[in-house]
From TrEMBL:
It comes from Candidatus Jettenia ecosi. Keywords: Flavoprotein, FMN, Iron, Iron-sulfur, Metal-binding, Oxidoreductase. Pfam families: Oxidored_FMN, Pyr_redox_2. Residues 3-331 form the NADH:flavin oxidoreductase/NADH oxidase N-terminal domain. This is 2,4-dienoyl-CoA reductase [NADPH]. In the N-terminal section; belongs to the NADH:flavin oxidoreductase/NADH oxidase family. It comes from the Bacteria. GO terms for molecular function: FMN binding; iron-sulfur cluster binding; metal ion binding; oxidoreductase activity. The keyword Transcription does not apply. Its cofactor is [4Fe-4S] cluster; FMN. InterPro entries: Aldolase_TIM, FAD/NAD-bd_sf, FAD/NAD-binding_dom, NADH:flavin_oxidoreductase, OxRdtase_FMN_N.
């Protein structure tokens, strides 16, 4: 085992292992108070073996509240709820808990605070679109005082430490960065002046609560925005703040305003670890690596290679609160690995919903959902081995039911098997891997390559049936749809046929965009080859980008709506669209496809697609046409068996085509009912 489970001092606080749970908004409160739902959520993570839990962000003053569901540290009345939380966490062996102090500055919208945002300079946030008030020196001192008061409350509430959020474009970062700090007084201009606000907060906190009370400073190693901090300036900032009393540095990349991907699955694992490695080289206090570390084996490598002293995990501990204990005990098949899809976490918050998880239906419902043995075990047949069916089978087996699962294809996973094939989507396979291992371990009787019809099910004599047969690709009624060059997206993704050089995709939803990327990336240069050629100056930087992002096929998406990519979540769509653009995929929107032209016997016609746009007809050449206009429920078996068995439930896409999150959650919930 690596250093992962070794103790480490952070100031005068000893943490039992090197695994930290990142601060994150959960969407569980609306008035800043800590409630039972928050406590239950963190209790499960404390029970799961994490060394330090960071809660928050917590606003030190109401003007810094960046979201409706942020926890407050601005009033003494909040202390009792916070104390209940820390007492609960401390009940688990040597688990520490810290409060993250986060002031949004210009990122704090008046929509939540009813106040004008503040910042070092009156520069408008790209998303908030409100001009912030430039803080006066006197007002800066007041804000510093509020940070101190918040820390005093945190200590009274039983928190073992505080983390100052000095990254991601929030207020402290706004002072540090030239991108947002245009002041010409003692808080602006030189790096020393821009660091002054952060230094004074740390010094004032230490004076108020004692030098032994640990302060972790979360920083952006690289702001990833124009005029923002780069790693060399961040090194100097870390040196200055260490001298001022910072006890550890939590290093992450970028701002929410950045157009560089930070949170999506397309980012290679550990892509930003070089930032913590650089910071570690210049300070003596512990340095924490964060972002896109979803595997504790990789986390151990980071520590062993001295790229950081600790690792910070957020989403991986939402999907699997027991991750540390499972890894330590060698229960590798039982680990749910985060796929960075953001569907249940970040996208939910952006849609003003609370945090959940794509394939952990219990996340956010701790204490509400319980998998308990059935008082009367039954024989249950699950029809369909997609994510909904596998999750239902898993939970049914855990509850003691005798479960048989039928899958008409020769593999489990349903439509999800195609989702992880396009480049940058590989993490999705973790869902199938986990569910397959679980139902095999639980001895679910699996019948692959066999379609369940009425006779088959009658021979099984089940007490209950769960229908999870998924969906089938929609084939539009178009002239030429049966042409030799016309294929479904799944046929292409499975590799059953190779696409030609001129490819037209009908449909720009999730599947259409993914198959477009899959084809457009074919023939690109491998990254290791590109690095070799770049190192030896055979290629230029521009050449490397070109050769690694674009293949040699012409790919065009035809979409009837105004925009493509509508099926992706808010935090993912823009990343996918950028990838499509970089790969050279063309898009034509607001069209109506009229006909697919096939080559006639004499070869006189050019293959392609006729479509209408703006009242005019156009023709586009295509030697391969891919149908990706969506799926429709496949529910033939439901019609055959309705009313013929004691219990029958229908879940997932066979009811209505939706997201994998909804399918898995339905599978979980129906398994609790039987």
């Amino acid at each position: 085992m690596s250093k992962l489970f070794e103790e480490i001092p952070v100031g005068q606080m000893t943490v039992k292992n090197r695994i930290i749970m990142s601060a994150m908004d959960l969407g569980f409160t609306s008035d800043g108070t800590v409630n039972d739902r928050i406590i239950r959520f963190y209790e499960d993570r404390a029970k799961g073996g994490v060394g330090l839990i960071v809660v928050g962000g917590c606003y030190p003053e109401i003007n810094g509240k960046v979201w409706k569901s942020i926890i407050g540290l601005d009033k003494d009345e909040l202390i009792p709820g916070l104390r209940r939380l820390t007492d609960t966490v401390h009940a688990y062996y040597q688990v520490r808990i810290a409060a993250q102090l986060l002031h949004g500055g210009r990122s704090a919208s008046s929509f939540f605070t009813k106040m004008q945002p503040v910042s070092p300079s009156p520069l408008v946030h790209r998303s908030i679109k409100q001009e912030p008030h430039a803080l006066t020196v006197s007002e800066i001192k007041t804000v510093i005082g509020n940070y101190v008061s918040a820390t005093v409350r945190a200590k009274k509430a039983g928190f073992d430490a505080v983390e100052l959020h000095g990254g991601m474009g929030y207020l402290i970062n706004q002072f540090l960065s030239k991108a947002t700090n245009k002041r010409d007084d003692e808080y602006g201009g030189s790096l020393e002046n821009r660091v002054r606000f952060a230094r004074e907060i740390i010094i004032a906190i230490k004076e108020a609560v004692g030098k032994d009370y640990p302060i972790i400073f979360r920083m952006s190693g690289d702001d990833l925005v124009a005029e923002g901090l780069k790693i060399d300036e961040s090194l100097e900032i870390a040196r200055m703040l260490e001298q001022s009393g910072a006890d550890a540095f939590n290093v992450s990349p970028g701002w929410h305003e950045s157009r560089t991907p930070i949170l999506s699955m397309i980012i290679p694992r550990m892509a930003y670890t070089f930032l913590s490695q650089r910071i570690k080289s210049c300070v003596k206090v512990p340095v924490i690596a964060s972002v896109r570390i979803n595997d504790l084996t990789l986390a151990g490598e980071i520590l062993d290679n001295e790229q950081a002293d600790m690792v910070s995990l957020g989403r991986p501990l939402i999907v699997d609160p027991d991750l540390p204990n499972k890894y330590k005990n060698g229960q590798f098949d039982d680990i749910r690995t985060c796929i960075a899809c953001n569907q249940g976490c970040f996208d939910s918050l952006l849609n003003f919903k609370s945090v959940s998880c794509t394939y952990n239906a219990m996340a956010g419902h701790e204490g509400e959902y319980k998998i308990i043995p059935s008082g009367k075990p039954k024989k249950v047949v699950v029809v369909g081995g997609g994510p909904a069916g596998m999750e239902a089978a898993r939970v049914l087996a855990l509850r003691g039911h005798r479960v048989t699962l039928y899958e008409r294809k020769k593999h489990l996973g349903g439509q999800l098997r195609y989702a992880f094939i396009p480049p940058g989507r590989e993490e999705i396979q973790n869902i199938i891997t986990y569910l397959e291992k679980q139902i095999f371990r639980l001895k679910v009787h699996i019948k692959i390559g066999k379609e369940a019809d009425l006779q088959t099910l009658q021979e099984e004599h089940p007490d209950a049936i769960v229908v999870a047969t998924g969906g089938n690709p929609v084939m539009p009624d178009l002239p030429g749809i049966k042409g030799k060059q016309v294929y479904t997206a799944s046929t292409i993704l499975e590799g059953k046929v190779l696409s030609g050089k001129d490819v037209v995709i009908l449909g720009g939803g999730t599947v259409g965009c993914e198959v477009a990327l899959h084809i457009a990336k074919q023939g690109t240069m491998r990254p290791d080859v590109a690095c070799f050629l770049l190192k030896h100056k055979v290629l230029s930087d521009r050449d490397v980008i070109e050769y690694t992002t674009r293949g040699n096929k012409s790919v065009t998406i035809l979409e009837m709506k105004k925009k493509i990519g509508g099926g992706f979540g808010i935090s993912t769509r823009w990343v996918i669209l950028n990838e499509l653009k970089d790969a050279g995929v063309k898009e034509i929107t607001e069209v109506r496809v009229k006909e697919i032209i096939n080559t006639n016997e004499n070869g006189r016609k050019t293959e392609g697609v006729v479509y209408e746009k703006g009242g005019k007809d156009y023709f586009i050449k295509a030697d391969t046409v891919i149908i990706a206009v969506g799926y429709s429920p496949y529910n033939d078996i439901q019609k055959q068996i309705e009313g013929k068995f004691p219990e029958m439930y229908c879940i997932g896409d066979c009811v209505k085509v939706r997201t994998v999150l909804e399918a898995i959650h339905e599978g979980f919930e129906v398994a609790l009912k039987i």
